[in-house]
Design a protein that fits this description.
Layout lengths: L1 H12 L1 H30 L10 E7 L4 E2 L3 H8 L5 E15 L5 E8 L3 H5 L5 E2 L14 E4 L1 H8 L9 E4 L2 E8 L13 E4 L4 H4 L8 E6 L5 H19 L4 E6 H6 L3 H32 L1 H9 L4 H37 L14 H27 L3 H6 L5 H41 L9 E7 L8 H16 L4 E7 L9 E6 L10 E8 L3 H5 L3 E4 L13 E5 H7 L9 E3 L8 E8 L18 E5 L7 E8 L7 H11 L6 E5 H8 L1 H35 L1 H9 L4 H29 L1 H4 L11 H27 L3 H7 L1
Parallel strand pairs: 4-9, 6-8, 15-20, 17-19
Antiparallel strand pairs: 1-2, 1-10, 1-11, 3-4, 3-7, 3-10, 5-8, 6-9, 7-8, 12-21, 12-22, 13-21, 14-15, 14-18, 16-19, 17-20, 18-19
Helix pairs in contact: 1-11, 2-9, 2-11, 2-12, 9-12, 9-14, 9-20, 11-12, 14-20, 14-22, 14-24, 15-18, 20-22, 20-24, 21-25, 22-24
Length: about 800
């Protein structure tokens, strides 16, 4: 306690240094803890299932894209009993809940009954599905989420066994899932049994499903990949095709697209923490150097070096405790802000929190910072020579040179850690600018969108569904203020639906099958979204099942498949599961961005093909409404028009197209903002470090500068000399920092758009900015060096 009281008195004597040290530590600990909370919650925290390390996701892997497997593929995988304990499949569905009040759209999943046993979860109330409840003709049943049960049904335990109306049919509630069951996502509210079409089991009909499995005990991921790959080859030789199979851990599959971003941010804050630790070491080292005379006196009076080191650690302890506490408080606040501002699509947001592993990580960082804060005073105390110190009055030229060299190395290290952050921020800024300037292929202004799913119980045939869509569009177009309205199964920038087709007489590709993004649209869709018609024509109501099958392709298809030719009049075979009929190209439109530009790698070639809604009918559609003025006030009237066609039709995802564009860029904007903030803090800390070292050097060499001026050196030459001392440290650190920046190019390649991860201009700009800041940080101490009175220096000598 005596050491601690003495330490507090010493810290109180230099409040400026103490405050800077506490803030530096809080900054480093706070940012690192906050980002690690996100990284752990999203990427590292085990999935909330039984033995989650045995859970895997299975995909079909084609040349340019991954696809969901077919139901028959899942059944084949179940036969690999030595590899997989069980295999389940599911797909997302929309469920229209009709009852008291407004119709409510539920995000649901149609699942094989064994999904819950594969995951290792049970119902909190009631039961899950029996193995035979996926057979045609069985009673319709449903499982509800805890949130829906509490919100819609008031947590009534008697709800189990009650019937509710979903999509026009009666379903019996058989169970309520636990509050922490959020699969496939936290947005899912209900689960129904997946009833397969008999044709799917014989591959006469092919639908794609998400497939998950539990590895058999003792089976490794590599073994599963080998066996699944061998199965894919056997299936390809039997049924044709060229798709392989990939097996990934379920956790890795969930976080694949965000891993590069989170890895970059974690690396950035660790670099920032290292800068803070070096800065902390420099602060305490400078303080210890100023007390070298005190150390000599205490040694002369009989104090041991061990005693001095203990005292140095005691003086660092209050700073560590206060800085660490402030850092954790700041991290808690930052995590809440991040979760609230998290971009749409970030997986496992509900798992982000200051959990026990995160706190342990924070304590580890605090211990690292404690070592950084204590090591310089400890070395100073251990190396103290009582005879030399007392003889020179606390000043030793040899030890002073050693301390000066150590400080210069510390500054160079801070520069080396700061430069990669500046380069990353520069690249992301350039990417954000490129994304904002890119041609989307459509005009989002004044377009509102909403989604819905048709009821097959009331519209059992494709013809009835298409007629329903036609009536709905006609009713919406009649709303005052509506310039145009159309339907599409997927609006741009929210993902794609790829299907393999065979292009006839393709001169631009040798592939038998080419994956293309397919969309079903109503007439007028291209006009509604402002998509440019390059040549040919769009769809009309006459492009129905009685007419030849037709399609509109985008410019990329025309350019890549039939280069130098006219695409209109060409043909291709539809996907095999749709009968493989010939489809004639009637028009070419501009290419449209269908996904975030940073995730395009997961969605294949980007070739786009549009179908008439009467020839390829979809159950889920998005209504796009272009207004004559502002789209917002029209929404209520549009919904009223929809309900005039079908009073039970629920709608969801009411958004403007501008909001969709903004959301697609949200992850890049947030990453850029964080990187700019981290690099700015790193630059500030590095500047403070340079300023401190140069100021210390000037203070120790004031007489030398006075003599230089007396011997004829101009003040400009003195300024240049001092500034060079600072910039030389920055140059040395920049050389190492450039190596770090180049090494990070692999991570950056997944996050930049329209700029190379090793872009010379960006690297040069970041380096130039860092050197400029170093020069400015050195200039102010240099001014003090030029103000020394030469006569005072000469008289001293």
């Amino acid at each position: 306690m005596n050491d601690l009281r003495y330490a507090l008195r010493q810290l109180a004597r230099s409040p400026g240094l103490t405050v800077i040290a506490v803030l530096t530590l809080a900054l480093g600990i706070g940012t690192a803890t906050a980002i690690f909370s996100v990284v752990y919650g999203v990427m590292l925290r085990p999935l909330p299932f039984r033995e989650p390390e045995r859970l895997v996701s299975i995909w079909l892997q084609r040349k340019l894209a991954r696809n969901y497997p077919a139901a028959a593929d899942a059944l084949e995988l179940r036969q690999l009993r030595g590899v997989f304990e069980d295999v389940a499949l599911f797909e997302d569905v929309n469920l229209n809940l009709v009852g008291d009040g407004e119709p409510q759209r539920l995000q649901g999943a149609s699942v094989s009954p064994n999904l819950f046993s594969v995951l290792g979860v049970a119902a909190a109330l009631g039961r899950t599905f029996a193995q035979d409840e996926d057979q045609p003709g069985r009673e319709r049943i449903v499982l509800l989420s805890d949130a829906l049960w509490r919100g819609r049904f008031g947590a009534d335990r008697a709800v189990v066994g009650r019937r509710i109306r979903l999509n026009g049919s009666l379903y019996t509630i058989v169970g309520i899932m636990p509050p922490d069951f959020q699969y496939p996502s936290g947005a899912h509210q209900a689960w129904v049994p997946l009833v397969l079409n008999p044709g799917e089991l014989t591959r006469q009909v092919t639908e794609n499903y998400r497939v998950v499995a539990r590895l058999a005990p003792g089976t490794t991921l590599q073994q599963a990949r080998r066996e699944a790959g061998a199965l894919a080859k056997r299936l390809a030789s039997t049924y044709g095709g060229n798709a392989g199979m990939t097996v990934d851990s379920m956790l890795e599959d969930a976080v694949r697209e965000v891993r590069p971003t989170l890895t970059l941010l974690l690396g950035a804050v660790l670099f920032l923490l290292l800068i803070a630790c070096v800065n902390l070491s420099s602060l305490f080292g400078a303080r210890a150097a100023a007390r070298s005379g005190e150390f000599g006196v205490r040694l002369a009076l009989g104090a041991s070096r061990k005693r001095l080191i203990t005292q140095a650690i005691a003086e660092a302890t209050p700073v560590l405790l206060l800085g660490g506490a402030l850092g954790v408080v700041a991290a808690e606040w930052a995590v809440r802000v991040f979760v609230a501002a998290a971009p749409a699509g970030l997986p496992r947001v509900e798992s982000i929190a200051l959990s026990a592993p995160v706190v342990a990580f924070s304590l580890t960082l605090l211990a690292l910072a404690g070592c950084a804060a204590s090591i310089a005073p400890a070395v100073q105390a251990w190396g103290s020579d009582v005879t030399t110190i007392t003889k020179e009055g606390g000043r030793s030229s040899t030890s002073g040179r050693r301390r000066s060299a150590a400080r210069r190395v510390g500054v160079a290290a801070q520069i080396a850690f700061a430069l990669p952050l500046l380069v990353g921020a520069t690249l992301l800024l350039q990417s954000a600018i490129n994304v904002m300037r890119m041609d989307l292929g459509f005009r989002p202004e004044l377009v509102a969108t909403l989604s819905f799913e048709v009821s097959r119980s009331r519209n059992p045939s494709d013809q009835k569904v298409a007629d329903y869509y036609a009536r709905l569009v006609e009713a919406v177009r009649a709303v005052p203020g509506v310039a145009n309205a159309s339907l599409v199964n997927r609006i741009p920038l929210v993902g794609g639906q790829t299907n393999p087709v065979h292009f006839d007489n393709a001169t631009g590709t040798t592939d038998e099958l080419t994956n293309v993004d397919t969309r079903t649209v109503t007439p007028g869709y291209f006009t509604t979204l402002g998509i440019r018609l390059v040549t040919g024509r769009g769809f009309t109501e006459h492009d129905d099942t009685n007419a030849p099958e037709v399609a509109v392709v985008d410019e990329r298809v025309a350019r890549m498949i039939w280069p130098g030719e006219t695409a209109v009049g060409k043909r291709f075979r539809a996907p095999a599961w749709r009968g493989g009929r010939w489809v004639n190209v009637i028009g070419v439109v501009a290419h449209v961005r269908t996904v975030d530009p940073l995730t395009h790698v997961y969605w294949g070639s980007g070739l786009q093909v549009y179908w008439s809604y009467r020839q390829w009918t979809q159950d889920r559609m998005v209504l796009a409404v272009r207004s004559e003025t502002e789209s917002g006030p029209l929404i209520a009237s549009v919904i009223k028009a929809i309900r005039s066609v079908d009073a039970e039709q629920s709608v969801y995802d009411l958004r403007t197209l501008t909001e969709i564009v903004d959301r697609s860029q949200a992850q890049l904007r947030l990453t850029t903002l964080l990187m700019v903030g981290f690099s700015g803090l790193a630059l500030l800390l590095a500047a403070v470090g340079i300023y401190g070292v140069v100021t210390y050097g000037v203070t120790q060499s004031l007489r030398e500068f006075g003599i230089r001026v007396a011997l004829g050196a101009s003040r400009r030459e003195v300024t240049r000399l001092v500034v060079w001392q600072g910039t030389s440290m920055a140059i040395a650190g920049s050389v190492v920092g450039l190596m770090f920046a180049i090494a990070a190019a692999g991570v950056m390649s997944h996050l930049v758009y329209g700029v190379a991860p090793t872009d010379v201009a960006s690297i040069f700009a970041a380096t130039a900015l860092l050197l400029l800041v170093a020069a400015l940080a050195s200039y102010f101490p240099a001014r003090r060096a030029t103000q020394v009175d030469p006569m005072v220096a000469l008289r001293y000598e």
